[in-house]
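Why does residue order matter? Because the sequence determines the fold. Keep that principle in mind as you read this record.
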Amino acid sequence: MTVQRFDVGTRLSEMAVHQGVCYLAGQVAGDATQDIRGQARQVLAAIDALLARAGSDKSRILMCQIFLSDLADFGGMNEVWEAWLPAGQAPPRATVLAQLAKPQWKVEMVVTAAV
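Structure:
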């Protein structure tokens, strides 16, 4: 069975697809100067773009893991998340407090979705 990898670097691929499932690397904001709402919108747009490249979309998300650098941002992140989700399509999800790789990042999301 072939594994299809997207945007392969020396350290990681942005996405891998195998047997009808796509696995995304952790997605973070490109412009980390924005507040939690702005960063969450950027992350979700990146997820949308990657899923589209795999022939999938947010209605097919099987699981999402969300990492927040500050739990005070939980409400703002949820506001953006809930506006982004299609009605009735909320996937299983975990949200945890984490020290992210760069201190300016407020949120990182890891998604697994059906193709």
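The chain has a mean pLDDT of 97.
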